Amino acid sequence: QVQLVESGGGLVQAGGSLRLSCAASGSIFSINSMGWYRQAPGKQRELVAVATSSGSTNYAEPVKGRFTVSRDNAKKTVYLQMNSLKPEDTAVYYCNAVLKPYGFTYLKNYWGQGTQVTVSS
What we know:
Mean pLDDT: 97
Radius of gyration: 14 Å
Shape: elongated
Distance between the termini: 41 Å
Low-confidence stretches: none
Number of helices: 0
Strand content: over 45%
Largest sheet: 7 strands, mixed
């Protein structure tokens, strides 16, 4: 069993900051990538930022320069530091991990339960 547990969402005023955390636990052999997606009401889930095991990162254009994704591989945790938040950042943020559980020869995709981020104007 593999679980992703998120924390750190909440309500913040425009221009403020929040930090999200997501810890992976369970029978994990290796983790390829960890990152964040978000889904606003009435919209599809979209990539926010992802960090690979090699240390490379990728960001969606709307968050470049404002958000920073980082990983603590020893803790199997990914973080998302969100600065200069805007009302359009309001969404449910989902942690994602692409990893290989013990006993598997291929990568599997896992999601957290989601955490609400609300930015007021």
